[in-house]
Amino acid sequence: MKRRDFFAAVGGGIAVLLVDNAGAQQGGRGGGNRQMPQEVGAWLHIGEDGVVTAYTGKVDVGQNSRASLTAAVAEELRVPVASVRFIMGDTALTPFDGGTSGSGTTPNMWPQIRRAAATAREMLLDLAAQKWNADRASISIANGKATSGSRSAGFGELTQGQKLVKTISANVALTPATEWKVAGTSVPKITGRQIVTGAHKYPSDMKRPGMLHGKILYPPQFGAKLASLDPSAAQAIPGVKVAREGLAAPRAGFGGDVVGVAAPDAETAERALAALKVEWTPAAAQPSSNDVYTYFKQNAEGGAAAGAGLVAYTIAYIAHVPLEPRAAVAEWNDGKLTVWTGTQSPFGVRRELMEHFKLPEESVHVFMPDTGSGYGGKHQGDAAIEAAILAKAAGRPVQRNWTREEELTWSYFRPGAVIEVGGKANPDGAIAAWEFHNYNAGASALRTPYHVPNAREEFHQTKSPVRQGSYRCLAATANNFARECYMDELAHSIGMDPLAFRLKNASNDDRLRAVMEAAAERSGWAKRKKTPNHGFGMAAGFEKGGHVATCVEVSVTNGAVKVLRVVEAFECGAVINPEHLRNQVEGAIAMGLGGALFERVEFAGGKVSSNRLSRYRVPRFADMPPIESVLLDRKDLTSTGAGECPIIGIAPAVGNAIFDATGQRVRSLPLAPQGLGRAASGAG
Amino acid sequence: MANIGELNVNGTRRRIDADAGRTLLSVLREDLDLTGTKYGCGEGQCAACTVLVDGQPTLACITMVGEVAGKRIVTIEGLALEGKLHPVQEAFLEADAMQCGYCTSGMILGAVALLRSKPNPSDAEIATGMNGHICRCGTYPRIVRAIHAAAGKGGRA
């Protein structure tokens, strides 16, 4: 990169570019930002006005990475949090990033930002030493100023007239967690005030001059093919433009063509969409959400495993239901495309747009304003491509905001699964045999964390009749449900306390034992009193660098399951922001309760019937038990992410508590969609 | 259908020219650029679109603009007065009662209305009164805490 170009873009001052070799291998920098070296993972700039700006391709969908990353800069640069500006998820300004997923921001980006800030601090020390002709050791940096004896200078004063760029790699000394002053404290949500005043602009709030509203024609069922299209009546509506364009990458169930309308307002767009005369060729017969489990095993690659004595668990497809549905605004100027969209992967969406429109990297700019949640559901650029196709046809900017019905039908779902488990426990509690087969959901947390000799653990790829994709913690939720429920079954088979059984078999994992002991202690596990229709259950696991244990108490009245209390212990290394971490843990439990008890995507004949919030139940205030989180702050361990792992414990803990309360072993998620009776009868 | 020419929003008479059969949500967001009121479901199931109409919590996605002409409408943008946050807004910040924040405007206005009818609600009364609101990030316990904290601190709407 030419230094001249760089400072032309950002103004003078000093800049630190952080080369992330690990990330370069992991993400593949092929689609990198041409304004800087391909290997740069993050960078930071201190302007001649003293303004500190940091840049990352990561995005904030509510997990508060904006706060944790800002704290990283404030910590290492010794500046107040309020003086740091963070540019996130903007493909024109930020370094390439492979996407915000897998709880990766904290373990991967957070240390990079800290290294960049620590390096900038050292550069400021050098500048102050030069300026004052003073010994570097006599200078300290604190509160946004360099001080030596009676002399003091703000960052702006030090950077004035400078054009310094430093490119660094790893191995910069960082402030140890035991000495953190800003990191480790509960820095408040950065955009909090804008949110409580309604000022924050989410992707669906974006507006451009002359903008039209877009609607897309979706097939009446998955796999139906467009046989004929007569757009004349729609086109006759004043201000309406109809677009039809083949997709470079067809979407599962949707087909190869995007057909849509753009109109001056959403109501007219709706009318125009209804005025399209369309004939469809129906799709072949497809399995329903009830018979999909048989379908998974029938279509398993290489055939289903033929283990004898295996017990089957089933996992329903569920929906992310981000409260802000997918949304995008696209605008073309002189053959260049700008898109504002809610996505966990702005660079991935840019690549999709480049491939679809056959455009070079510099002609596509994707920007992601902090978005109304994702939960793993906003990786693809569907809304962005739709908006861009319509905007191209209309010659005006187009907003394409999905409806809830579209979101609940045409996004993608957390995979359903059949999981078959078998095993044996010796009378002393040691696990003697373990076999585990996951059909369709995935391999995350396939391996048991317990010490098991000769485990057979396999993920079987199969076919999914509906579009599926990542969801908070991927298959770890399904795999932990089956494993932790079956662990309960094994404990009961030898009459051993479920906690004692787990602790005995987790002798190889101190961190797992620690969260189990912490959750058990807080919940009063040893003193629990089981009464009829009232029970206790626990589960534990680790994923994405986090360790979790969950203890719950339930009552079952006439089949109605009520979760009375949840205690969850969580450990993810050194805690960066205790309040936001608690918020994540509590929120994951609340969200996880939906998948545990009642959430289920229902479909038949290629049509989703759970396509509205009145037909797809998500947790509400009245569903909430008291939730207590116990955070184990391990300042001696690297900080890891927390957005996902805390969700994996709740479903098996509730399932085990239902067994404790009723003697009924429910082996299906959701556990009690219409109360317990129907769940149990539908589980076979 | 007849057109509506004026709405009283956040203490100001705003000129509009909207078909009376359009939703209040659409008019607020598109015609008046008050995008703090959110779309979440379009069927009154999530309450992200809650505004106050003559002090009553109202689901803007299923309310026709013709129904509210001449009435006093308050959106999230009109809750803070002269830059001073409403106690419920303060309490939401204090309790970190949000993650993505998309439900927050509706939650805050729903809470303001709840506290007007029940100045000191119990946990159960909050759960009942707020049960129409969805927070998919699951910050419910924090919202309950925020409402308790704001209770008794007065408020206006």
Describe the structure in your own words:
The complex is a heterodimer of chains A (684) and B (157). Chain A is α/β, with parallel strands linked by helices and 684 residues long. Chain A has three domains: 3-196, Aldehyde Oxidoreductase, domain 4, CATH 3.30.365.10; 204-283 and 326-401, Aldehyde Oxidoreductase, domain 4, CATH 3.30.365; 417-681, Aldehyde oxidase/xanthine dehydrogenase, molybdopterin binding domain (Aldehyde Oxidoreductase, domain 4). Chain A contains 18 helices and 28 strands. Chain A has a seven-stranded mixed β-sheet. Chain B has 157 residues and is α+β, with helices and mostly antiparallel strands. Chain B folds into two domains: 3-78, Beta-grasp domain (Ubiquitin-like (UB roll)); 87-150, Orthogonal Bundle (DNA polymerase, domain 1). Chain B is built from six helices and five strands; from the N terminus they run ββαββαβαααα. At the A-B interface, α6 and α16 of A face α1, α3, α4, α5 and α6 of B.
The CATH class of the largest domain in chain A is identified as Alpha Beta
- Biggest beta sheet summary of chain B: 5 strands, mixed
CATH superfamily of the largest domain in chain B: Beta-grasp domain
Give the number of helices of chain B: 6
The level 1 CATH classification of the largest domain in chain B is Alpha Beta
Q: How many distinct folded domains of chain A?
A: 3
CATH-defined topology of the largest domain in chain A: Aldehyde Oxidoreductase, domain 4
Number of strands of chain A: 28
Strand order of the largest sheet of chain A: 11-12-9-18-15-16-17
Largest interface: A-B, 59 and 55 residues
Q: What shape does the CA trace of chain A take?
A: flat
The radius of gyration of chain B is 15 Å
Strand pairing plus helix content of chain B: what structural class? alpha+beta
Helix/strand order of chain B, N-terminal first: EEHEEHEHHHH
